Amino acid sequence: MKLVLITDAWGPQVNGVVTTLVELVDGMRARGHEVVLIEPSQFRRMPCPGYREIELALRPWGKVKAMLDEAFEASPGRPKTPRSPSGGWASRSGDLGGHQEVAIHIATEGPLGTAARRWCLKNNRAFTTAFHTRFPDILSSALHIPESWGYWWFKRFHAPSSGVMVPTEGMRQILQHHGFTNLRSWSHGVDLELFKPVAGASLDLPGPVWLYVGRVSYEKNLQAFLNLDLPGSKVVYGVGPLLEKFRREHPQVHWRGVVPRSELPRIYSAADVFVFPSRSETFGLVMLEALACGTPVAAYPVAGPLDVLGESDGGVLDADLRRAALAALHITPERALARAHQFDWHAVVNQFIGLLVPAGPAAVTHCHETVASRS
């Protein structure tokens, strides 16, 4: 097939969404599928307000329209491949009988995702979307915008989608509560070739070593980790809008910034416990990366950690984060590894393929939305 993937999150951004999409694209191409990417580096950009390290496409409509037009002009109509009862392709192995079908997947709700959505509605084309980030929670934390307003807007954005992919059952329940429809479960995975234990890894700090990797931003609830009374050393890898504030307030914490992805297995392996304080995750990929390196996880029992750790003994979930962290010290690397190996990327890519829908007009089931005024 040809997949047209539209995303506002791509390199050089460093976050779980980018990691997930890069792995997905690699997996699709490894199966022989063509992937057409529409991402920010192809456009004029501006810094995202409040997150200057993230650049957003500026006035992208004209170029997005041209790129989508070209993608379809280069893929003349061919016989349709049978679809499974769930709406995706019946074949989950990637064999489409020699015919190239086109699918559109809008991964994010930013300027590029909005422009692609507009094109699909104007041209009566079916598409799928994904809910990767709990932006309503971020907007509430950073700008004090009521969560209900944010979820109303995102529900409207995703309403025309033929399938809204969500990574966890906990997130699915949250979106259902806010009135989202057409939700489809699409789990995430971890690169088990890259993320594995590194023997003898050390950060040269007094132990035990408590690690956090991720954005230093409003929605991550990092203050809860920083305030914990724990022996040994706390280490934070990541950047974000709150970095300088937290560095001033917590000089005893070891702030290490951003490192190449290839260095992360050594860092995870050198820690005694990975502490994940966020209460507003859609998934929490860094937890899987830590587990795959044999490092147990301590987190709150909320959506994201509940799904990643489940009922396994690869980590500890507790409403008292300090108690969870201290208990996680007693978990063996083998138990953490066993949980991570349940999230292999090969199955994740096949599941994604099965959830895509052909972008032909006959498959469109959009909600009632007037697009004439936008032409």
From TrEMBL:
- What domain of life does the native source organism fall in? Bacteria
Q: Where is this region: Disordered?
A: 72-92
**Gene3D superfamilies in alphabetical order:** Glycogen Phosphorylase B
Q: Which Pfam families match?
A: Glyco_trans_1_4, Glyco_transf_4
Keyword Transit peptide in the entry? The reply is: no
Keyword Transferase in record: yes
A single GO molecular function, which one?
Answer: glycosyltransferase activity
Q: Which residues form the Glycosyltransferase subfamily 4-like N-terminal domain?
A: 14-193
Listed A to Z, the keywords are: Transferase
Q: PANTHER family per the record?
A: SULFOQUINOVOSYL TRANSFERASE SQD2
> What is the name of the protein in this document?
Glycosyltransferase involved in cell wall biosynthesis
The source organism is Roseateles toxinivorans
